[in-house]
TrEMBL record, chain A:
GO terms, molecular function: monooxygenase activity; oxidoreductase activity, acting on paired donors, with incorporation or reduction of molecular oxygen
InterPro entries for this protein: Bact_Lucif_Oxidored, LLM_FMN-dep_put, Luciferase-like_dom, Luciferase-like_sf
Luciferase-like domain sequence ranges: 1-291
PANTHER family on file: BLR5498 PROTEIN (PTHR30137:SF8), LUCIFERASE-LIKE MONOOXYGENASE (PTHR30137)
Protein's recorded name: Putative FMN-dependent luciferase-like monooxygenase
Pfam families: Bac_luciferase
Gene3D superfamilies: Luciferase-like domain
A single Gene Ontology CC term: cytosol
Organism: Nocardioides cavernae
Keyword Protease among record annotations: no
TrEMBL record, chain B:
Organism: Nocardioides cavernae
Highest taxon listed in the record's lineage: Bacteria
GO MF terms held by the record: FMN reductase (NADPH) activity
Lineage of the organism: Bacteria, Bacillati, Actinomycetota, Actinomycetes, Propionibacteriales
Protein name: FMN reductase
UniProtKB keywords: Flavoprotein, FMN, Oxidoreductase
InterPro entries: CE1759_FMN_reduct (IPR023932), Flavoprotein-like_sf (IPR029039), FMN_Rdtase-like_dom (IPR005025), NAD(P)H-dep_FMN_reductase (IPR051814)
Amino acid sequence: MQFGIFSVGDITPDPTTGSVLSEGERIAYMTRLALKAEEVGLDVFATGEHHNPPFVVSSPTTHLGFIAAQTEKLLLSTSTTLITTNDPVKIAEDYAFLQHLSGGRVDLMMGRGNTGPVYPWFGKDIRDGIKLAVENYHLLRKLWREPVVNWQGQFRTPLQGYTSTPAPLDGTPPFVWHGSIRSSEIAEQAAYYGDGFFHNHIFWNKEHTEQMVRLYRQRFEFYGHGAADQAYVGLGGQVFMASSEAEAKRVFRPYFDNAPVYGHGPSLEDFSQMTPLTVGTTEQVIERTLGFADYVGDYQRQLFLLDHAGLPESLVMEQLEMLGTEVVPVLRTEFERRRPAHVPSDPPTHASMVAAGPDAAFHLIEPARERVEAMQAEAQAQQQAAGATA
Amino acid sequence: MTRRIVVVTAGLTVPSSTRLLADQLAEATTAQVTARGEGLDVQFVELREIAGELAQFMVTGGVPTPRLTELREQVASADGLVAVTPVFNGSYSGLFKMFFDALDKDSLTGTPVLVAATAGSARHSLVLDHALRPLFAYLRAIVVPTGVFAATEDFGSLGLADRITRAAAELAALVLSQGGYGVGGFAPDLAARPRRTSGNDVAEVTPFGDLLRGHTGND
């Protein structure tokens, strides 16, 4: 199972001191966070992508490339890559390039982005969000899998005789997750292609996360990629730890109360009950996190949000240290203890996909197409048979 | 078959004249429904009791509390709705609007609604027509022709009781006609059977083939 951290890259004033980082300081701090993640034994660092203040994370592959150069094992990912407003041609190039730089330590999580004005800044319309995600991702799959692409879609200029360079490392595109909080279409998309499904989890009640993951799992099986419990599921989590629950709450409360997303709203206690937020001891975090598998099933990736709401670097580094040395080692053991043998522990990695060879279903643009066509033919035949007897 | 209506009341004091009017509307509607030989369950929603939860729902970007989840479900599955608000600064109260903002936009499609309001002065009486009716028109609810407006002085007049009876009779007739959509196949299904969703559940899945149609780059 993979454990890591994900960042949205916000610049939020520290509510306890009023101090605000410069953009340069925030970027350097995120870099140190990623390096420390590897040092304390985590597997994944994922960066957000935003194109508006108060965020600094507009250029993920630049940043991840810089981090790749200073790390050995860390898997570099995104949370999320905007599949709606980015040109899929540029995504194909940038992330294949990053694969080559990092030795295949790359995967991506696709997201739509929910900030209306960002769409027109990139020549798009938020009302087309789902259609953009569908068309652009389909094109991205082709760009990574066909040597020469001819394409005419609805949203970008046509491509004639286009070859994306560099080609993916070892002819093996990066694994892709699709992230969505509420849209069943995106869970369906992830299931159709046999990709991973990531639920942000931290801003929503668990009943909802459970429904979204169940839908993805059922459809993953429907499209013939394996059993529902073998689908690739990732979850977000949000924690703050100290030696006692009271101390954790005392330190975290001002950050919670003023946080950009949920601040000035529910109490820390209410929000902890409604969502997976856990503020307490490392033991409490372990127990709560293990409980996630009770409602989403045994899953493959757990990412934690640590650096947000103006929390200073010193505090966040302490959190990361505790996470890496005290929490994750126990989680690794306990999650494997409950996992049935037929359920994969890790999502596909570059090494596992290369090992699977060039004939693996993963290399098809639409691995489920044959199955869907067969089902349609069968339904049609049944209809005709019924018509003949009537 | 026993029908069920939800009475939403946005009065702020206890007791409140808004609740008083809501009680009278509920009673009159029950009388009208039972007079037609059917049963009616009436469920009151005092918005005052969930004001904090509605505020939380707003600032968390829509995370429902367990009680809100339940209420959203109950409203979406009701056979009718009575909505009563005090008039504040020329319109429905903010609390009243927050409740309807916390509903899924498809949760009242085709639902019969009786609108009512209370105010200190009769000069606000058009609030039903310039504020409440447009709100429920957006939500595609069916608002009964008679709205009930009660200024303080109306609680001492006979005209109010008549208007309550007339509005309740109109609502009862619509509540009892719910579910009778005629013979299938003679009209497009969408028009025949209004779709209501509470917004609590993940939307029904659209097969990916339908989503991908026209977007594969070669058609």
